[in-house]
Amino acid sequence: MRVLDSGVLSRFLGVWHEDFFGGPEVQALEKEWATFFQVKHAISVNSATSGLFAAAGAAGVGPGDEVIVSPYTMSASATAPLIYGAIPVFADIEEDHFCLDPKSIEEKITKYTKAIVVVDIFGQPYDADTINEIAKKHNLIVIEDAAQAPAGKYKDKWTGTLADMGVFSLNYHKHIHTGEGGIIVTDNDELADRLRLIRNHAESVVEAKQVKNLNNMVGYNYRMTELEASLAREQLKKLPKVIEDRQKTVSFLAEKLGAFPFLSPAPARNESLHSYYVHPIKYFKEKADEIPRDVFIEAVRAELPLTELRETEGVNLGGGYVKPLYLQPMYQKRMAFGDSGFPWNSKHYQGSVSYEKGICPVTEKMHYEELFTNQIIHPEMTESDLMDIVNAFAKVWENRSELL
Ligand SMILES: *Cc1c(COP(=O)(O)O)cnc(C)c1O
Questions:
Q1: Are 65 and 86 in contact, with CB atoms under 8 Å apart?
Q2: Which residues neighbour 57 within 8 Å (Cβ) at sequence distance 6 or greater?
Q3: DSSP class of residue 268?
């Protein structure tokens, strides 16, 4: 109501002017976000996808470069380098934590590697100490996709603030949301400057602002509106409670489901706080009378009610997470911009990359065999709701002879 009454739904101007940085709600949100997350700069955008794209641009990623990415994430983590004409190179994930595996990253580094996009997948912080060290050694920029991990912690730092740049999402499905929206954070003044330019028509501003480095100074309109910013300011206040509720829900579920010998709720990384966008659990077929995961999970799904307000999505529990990204048609057919194979066949690209099935064996094992995920922890769950889930597993297990 404050924004509607003000009559100012957005105050961005795409020219070098005091309104280049947006209106009062946008600027207040950015200040409050930076304070909460203890970072120097918070830059609001209209989605985490935009945020990842802007981060790749700010990092100076371009044609001929390779960027190491995870195959087990939402697709935009990997398209961020691609839209700048760079090549996504997929490294494998960790067996227990599902984030990028530092060993696999090291194997994928070439003289063309420019950056790494790490993902705090499901809310689990990436292995920041090890990966940041690798990046430093090879002079690589690290972009942290923290869309699924607001207010998680790694040692004494917030997830999202562990790399050169971090990106949060405020889309409808995320822990806190504004319908659509995103926030980029960084402690680096130069990157922050470039991010703000890319957000708002950089090419029209560089002359007046006397920007010297024109690399990737093609701008977009990634601006957040005053309405979303005002919602985000209220949502941010609720974040600690939202995370706490999810952690309680997950620890209840993990204890009950962990009692089944064939289930193993995935642990949080040592010295860290998982923020549980998704609750990952491993299923061991050999301990479940050889019933395949998908057969078992399908039977459990049939026992569960739909989640309120998310009815159209079906039961939010299923085998795997997303299909390993390199198996998507875009990578398999190497067709992204136009139909001539750019950027893979561009004269700028001297390396070679594989998207064959089998390049990330741990990812494939998790996706097709061992892992199942649920997002039933999303809304406010009562103990009796949670017992419905536990009882569904118990019922299917007791009647497994029918499945066999
Ligand atoms: C949701 C999500 C995104 C994209 O967020 P949007 O705000 O919808 O663009 C990016 N990365 C990951 C890991 C996500 O879960």
A1: yes
A2: 84, 194, 198, 216, 218
A3: P
Q: 94 alpha carbon to ligand 1 midpoint, in Å?
A: 20
The phi, psi pair for 85, rounded to 5°, reads 80, 10
Mutate to test the pocket of ligand 1, among 44, 74, 183 (most ligand atoms within 8 A of CB): 74
Dihedral angle, C-alpha 191, 197, 202, 205, nearest 10 °: -110
- pLDDT band of residue 380 (cuts 50, 70, 90) is confident
Cα of 372 to ligand 1 centre, how many Å?
Answer: 20
**Which among 79, 145, 176 is the best mutation to test ligand 1's pocket, defined by most ligand atoms within 8 Å of the CB?**
145
Q: Beta 272-273 vs 87-90: how paired, if at all?
A: unpaired
CA–CA separation, 319 vs 342, rounded Å?
A: 34
Cis bond before residue 343 (omega within 30° of 0) = yes
- Tell me how crowded residue 91 is: count the other CB atoms within 10 A of its CB: 23
Atom of ligand 1 nearest to the CA of 181: 7
User: Residue with structure tokens 């099935």?
Assistant: 357
In this predicted structure, the answer to whether residue 378 has a pLDDT above a threshold of 80 is no
Report the candidate in 192, 166, 175, 158 with the shortest Cα–Cα distance to residue 122.
175
Report residue 305 as tokens.
């009610």
| Average pLDDT score over residue span 176-185 | 97
Closest residue by Cα to atom 2, ligand 1, is 147
What is the DSSP secondary-structure string of 57-82? HHTT--TT-EEEE-SSS-THHHHHHH
CB burial class (10 A; 0-12, 13-18, 19+) of residue 283? buried
What's the pTM value of the predicted model, to 2 decimals? 0.97
DSSP 42-54: EEEES-HHHHHHH
Pairing relationship of beta strands 165-169 and 141-145 according to DSSP bridges? parallel
Q: List residues bridging with 62 in a β-sheet.
A: none
- Placement of tokens 């893979």 in the chain: 344
pLDDT at 379: 67
